Amino acid sequence: MARSDELVFAPLGGVGEIGMNLSIYGLGNRHQRAWLAVDLGVSFGDEEHLPGIDLIMPDISFLEKERKNLMGLVLTHAHEDHFGAIIDLWPKLKCPIYATRFSAALFEAKCAAERNAPEIPVTVVPSGGRVDIGPFNVEFIPVAHSIPEAHALAIHTEAGIVLHTGDWKIDPTPTLGAPTDEKRLRELGEQGVLALIGDSTNAVRDGRSPSEAEVARTIIELVKSAKGRVAVTTFASNVARIKAVAEAAKAADREVVVVGRAMERVVQVARETGYLDGVQNFRSPEVYGHLPPDKVLALCTGSQGESRAALARIANDDHPEITLNRGDSVIFSSRTIPGNEKAVSSIVNNLVLQGVEIITDRDALVHVSGHPRRDELRDLISWVKPQLLIPVHGEALHLHEHAKLARAAGVPRVLVCRDGDLVKLGPGDPGIVGEVPSGRLYKDGTILEDSKSRAVIERRRMAFSGCAFVAIAMTAQGELADDPEVDLVGIPEKNRAGELFDDIVFDAVMSTIEGLPKARRRDPDALGESVRRAVRAVINEHWGKKPPCLVHVLTV
């Protein structure tokens, strides 16, 4: 029988994938548990496989059922893959939220920018501070990452201490914020850590992630040597990089023009929270065209190829204020997230065609990851000395490599799990003891759909093979009242022999109706299904694809 102080863990997102992070911890027994949620993030839709889907979010149906036992939601940091789903999903939970100052301020600014965002209170916890959330005592331990105030969470419970790393790296010379708190992590290791739930993003990469200070030096050199206009694009949330770009501009006697709403929002929050103290004021886009080419630097959103972001509009030459010409330079101070390669490549090619010089991390050290490589993972294990390690925040290969490294580093127990697995952490032998509901929600415009949504499935089919629409008017006697109407969307105009598909489908509809007995013609459902099958079959015969077919039968 389960003990009353049993501690369990379940990832509802972010394990076996990059993004959409949501982890939950439970304390109690199988009949009654108090729950703590960590992060509530999004991943981004892929137009090829999920046309029209803006964001993907974790399924929180389990937490909705356990809402009265959900003590709170704690944020490790303010990246979209860790807090981007809160505005949409919090109204289903209405639990307390805990975050440090910068994360809370950026979330408040995000809410202010959203139309009809709910009022969502956030309790601010100091960096390095501790807070009691039900039976959980949560400690915010500073770690280096690519955004201010990233924190690992030491979750203190009567069953033991769990270290939930969030996103982190070891950077002895961060250009902004505190380095990873090695001293406190070593102290926890001496105290005894039951489980380490750890970031696996760079577990396949040897060595150590370079420092932000090295990137800052490179950017200064590149900007000082540039002849024409310079544009720099980076993740809007990377305030350390924004500061480095500002310092490079100052060293080259250039004004910084901020281009893009997301960048403007982060800059405003960073100034309000003191992270850009001493950095010169930035200029608005209207000023750009009035400055000499060698006196301006545009700091742009759009490093991931986002079609509505500033850089895409500049590359397409349709931005109202910002233009680039032959001899100008664009620095991509970012890495391309898997899945965004085509969009980024399109922007790069458009800029090259305009004569713009492109500089990426293939050419110079203009970006470093905010995640730990293998030597850093080994360091953390040696500091914390966990009894159990569970790799999270990564795809299958990342999790596998992190687990292999942990075993080689002498961690007594290593467990690889998947989204939805319920893992007993202690006391006693750890292991997967059950499952909780998990899955994906799709944000489609302003509507949330589950992964089995008819709209999502049908749109994917239509994106692949178009759609056929047929309207038929029948008399009560089962005779055609008029010629059928055929409308083909996304289907070729002609087959290989040059015959019009409109005619092919019309003939198939007519022959199907004429071939049915009158009793079936008087049954709208039976008639509609017969025509639907015939249309799909004839299009497949001439094209090799079976599009969805919608048949409307009207009795007059």
UniProtKB/TrEMBL annotation:
InterPro entries per UniProt: Metallo-B-lactamas (IPR001279), RibonucZ/Hydroxyglut_hydro (IPR036866), RMMBL (IPR011108), RNase_J (IPR004613), RNase_J_2 (IPR042173), RNase_J_b_CASP (IPR055132), RNase_J_C (IPR041636)
Keywords of the record: Cytoplasm, Exonuclease, Hydrolase, Metal-binding, Nuclease, RNA-binding, Zinc
Ranges of residues in domain Metallo-beta-lactamase: 21-219
Domain of life: Bacteria
The keyword Membrane appears for this protein: no
Descriptive protein name: Ribonuclease J
